[in-house]
Design goal:
The structure holds two protein chains of two kinds. By secondary structure, chain A is an alpha+beta fold. Chain A contains eleven helices and ten strands. In chain A, a hairpin with a 2-residue loop joins strand 4 and strand 5. Chain A is globular. Classes of the chains: A alpha+beta, B alpha+beta.
């Protein structure tokens, strides 16, 4: 990452520390919308992190964006920052106009709606970040090639739902809908490339949440006394904390590797073979780790972790929802297994060795 | 504390690293074709072949990071990493020189006398001199500070008496690094008064007895030292500093690829055999294993990069070993679903041999070099819980 990237991350860190405490996150779900946080995130230009400077954005690297996503997740930021970042990047890649509001990528990893004669038809079941007034950015398929369409929130049939963690997820139905803007075919963008990119965003979020869960658990077991000493002095608890730390470290190693690879990739939305394995690895490892990390953290926290007031649940509910999105560990591990088998059968590995592909 | 972040920087892989990987790979393929060795599981512990180690030495693949004046090639830690992982996945018989290359050589380089460096290191690098570890004892395992082997000062040197247990490969080694008590034992300062010695195993008073393990291999040893004399310059480092030296060696020992690739050779064979009919559930199991291996490798390479930057990633190294050794075991348990393991190693095809041997060897993975319970304790200490 560049030095300016680090400055942006530091700014974001201060902003989240000031405006996104545990109480703000809880209230955003059951009471007051986080207006101060929303305004601050917008004013700092964070949703434009990935938009090139010539298009009015921050011009940050892919690594900056994914690290910002990971950091936001470690605060359980309850505003559609990640969704808007990705939507804005897709708009920039496809040469369409951005709006200075929240935006949402209407894509859940499933099949793209189809564009025919300028109108769009299809259903997206779990579109994230679709909030009232947001700009809807819909990747669509034109005979298998990806184009991007935009719509205003009010012009579509939208059924608003919430994820396990209370994040907005919407069912968007398009029936011959006329877009406000429709891009030509976007070079270097495929349906699977979009799926991979979004999967890495979720993997980064899970890794960010793991960091916070580790810190919460370490903090709690140091403070909480039972049988006359802190819980953290018991070997049984120490081993749970070590296992949480292990999954967190593994998740970080996996996403950092995938982010490095995507940063060097000339077409990060291409979904080609070079991108596939690191990204799939990251999503498998983070999604698999979610069960271990949440189970051990809750066990270490006792009843306190189960209460709504204590922040742990905001993170465990998030990782349970993020692990399913854009392909669970089951989806991506099956693809890794099949892709490896195909490579071996079709002589795409040196010496016919699995290791040749694993070590690339 | 807002969050706890582990960083695993990317290793810098230049063309020379890639070239070295290719060279090692094609050498190993050639050796397998010629029938020089039969690929085996857990080869860095179970595969002893001094002749093969000598061949690697002749190719310049042992002690590669050491100074040229001591027989090394002054290559990077990453060069060594690539050599070791290629040897592991090929299942090559590398145990004879493994400990000397990984641990004892660097220890001699850091703490040994000039004479030791000049006479021993070039022989290790040539694949002609092997070193065993003398740490555990009959009454001393995880609680290593309780060792009873004693070294007394005598004229011109030291006299060592005691018994070392589980020293892998000692029967083919010329030396053993022996941890002995040189100061009075103090319950409050248990880690003081320990010293490491480099003991020639042909010294009078040394007996080495092989111990057969449950997989049928005789690689363990019980070594007895009865008033064994060693000269003053057999001391490695400073008298009384043995504990500190050992703990700093361990980061090197704990994060290498042998901590997650011990059973890869069985996985490789299984996937090759299953590829044509791979689908659904089997693909998910295989894919999940491969993802975890890739992530662990990124982590392990990250620790290597941190070591290269001069940092001491003790916690990260302990995590690699804890996660990696459990994965090595888990791989075999998960492959069982598709390839049941029923017969002893010598019955059945190549894959069956590798699976049976892996199963019979895997209990040691989470024990050797510090049990996973000890490792988790190190992690907990690093996080401020102890």
């Amino acid at each position: 990452m560049e030095q300016t990237d680090q400055l942006i991350l530091d700014t974001a860190y201060r902003l989240f520390s000031d405006h996104c405490g545990a109480e703000v996150v809880n209230q955003a779900e059951i009471g007051e919308p986080p207006k101060t946080l929303c305004d601050a995130v917008m004013a700092a230009g964070l949703p434009l992190a990935w938009v090139p400077e010539k298009a009015g954005g921050v011009g940050g690297s892919l690594a900056l964006g994914f690290n910002l996503i990971r950091q936001a997740a470690s605060f359980a930021v309850p505003v559609p920052l990640v969704d808007t970042m990705i939507a804005n990047l897709v708009l920039a890649e496809s040469g369409l106009e951005m709006a200075d509001t929240w935006a949402a990528l209407v894509f859940d990893g499933g099949q793209l709606p189809v564009v025919d004669n300028g109108t769009v038809t299809g259903v997206v079941n779990n579109a994230p970040g679709v909030v009232s007034g947001s700009l809807l950015v819909v990747p669509v398929s034109d005979r298998g090639l990806v184009r991007v369409a935009t719509f205003a929130f009010d012009n579509l049939a939208i059924e608003e739902c919430e994820s396990l963690a209370g994040e907005s997820r919407a069912r968007v139905t398009l029936e011959g809908a006329s877009p406000v803007q429709l891009s030509p075919v976007v070079d270097g963008m495929t349906e699977d490339g979009l799926r991979q990119f979004c999967a890495l965003a979720r993997a980064s979020q899970i890794a960010g949440a793991f960091e916070k869960i580790t810190a919460l658990t370490v903090g709690y077991v140091k403070e909480r006394q039972q049988f006359g000493r802190p819980l953290g002095k018991f070997q049984a608890i120490q081993h749970k904390v070590a296992d949480i730390a292990g999954e967190s470290a593994l998740a970080n190693a996996a996403i950092e590797q995938a982010i490095r690879m995507l940063s060097e990739h000339p077409e990060p939305f291409s979904g080609d073979n070079v991108a596939f394995l690191p990204v799939a690895t990251a999503k498998v490892v983070t999604s698999e780790g979610a069960a271990t990390v949440s189970r051990l953290a809750h066990q270490s926290h006792g009843a306190m972790g189960f209460s709504f007031e204590y922040p742990l649940q905001q993170y465990s509910r998030r990782i349970w929802s993020w692990r399913e999105e854009y392909g669970s560990e089951f989806y991506w591990s099956e693809r890794i297994g099949m892709s490896m088998a195909n490579d071996i059968c079709h002589g795409r590995a040196e010496g016919g060795q699995v290791w040749d592909i694993v070590s690339r | 504390m807002d969050s706890i972040r582990f960083n695993f920087p990317a290793p810098v892989i230049d063309e020379s690293v890639d070239r070295l990987r290719k060279d090692v790979r094609s050498f190993l393929q050639e050796e397998i074709r010629n029938g020089t060795f039969r690929p085996g599981t857990d080869c860095w512990c179970a595969g002893i072949d001094p002749e093969f180690s000598r061949k690697l030495g002749q190719n310049g693949w042992i002690g590669v990071t050491w100074p040229k004046q001591y027989g090394g090639r002054e290559l990077s830690a990453l060069h060594r990493y690539v050599i070791t992982e290629e040897l592991l996945v090929a299942g090559a018989p590398v145990h004879a020189h493994w400990i000397a290359d990984r641990q004892s050589g660097p220890l001699i380089l850091a703490r040994g006398s000039e004479e030791m460096k000049q006479t021993i290191l070039p022989r290790i690098a040539a694949g002609e001199c092997f070193v065993a570890l003398g740490l555990s004892e009959p009454e001393s395992g995880s609680d290593l500070a309780s060792v009873r082997t004693r070294a007394h000062r005598v004229e011109g040197g030291w006299e060592i008496t005691g018994t070392k247990l589980w020293s892998s490969g000692a029967q083919s080694c010329q030396y053993m690094t022996v941890l002995a008590r040189t100061g009075e034992r103090n319950e409050k300062k248990r880690h003081e008064g320990l010293t490491q010695f480099l003991v020639p195993l042909d010294s009078p008073g040394v007996t080495v007895r092989g111990i057969r393990d449950m997989s049928g291999v005789e690689h363990f040893n019980e070594s007895h030292f009865e008033q064994v004399f060693v000269a003053d310059d057999a001391v490695l480092g400073a008298v009384g500093e043995g504990w500190k030296q050992i703990t700093s060696e361990l980061a090197l020992e704990r994060s290498g690829p042998e901590r997650f690739l011990s059973t890869f050779v069985a996985l490789e064979k299984a996937i090759q055999q299953g590829a044509a009919s791979m689908e659904g559930h089997q693909a998910r199991v295989i894919g999940s294993i491969l993802a975890r291996i890739r992530a662990l490798r990124a982590m392990s390479l990250g620790v290597a990069a941190l070591l290269g930057q001069g940092q001491s990633p003790d916690v990260e190294a302990a995590l690699v070993k804890d996660l990696g050794t459990r994965l090595e075991q888990d791989i075999i348990e998960r492959l069982r679903e598709f390839w049941p393991i029923q017969l002893k190693q010598s019955f059945g095809d190549e894959l069956q041999y590798l699976l049976s041997d892996s199963l019979l060897r895997q209990p040691s993975f989470t024990l050797r070099g510090g049990t996973n319970e000890v490792l988790k304790g190190i992690v907990a200490r690093g996080m401020g819980l102890r």
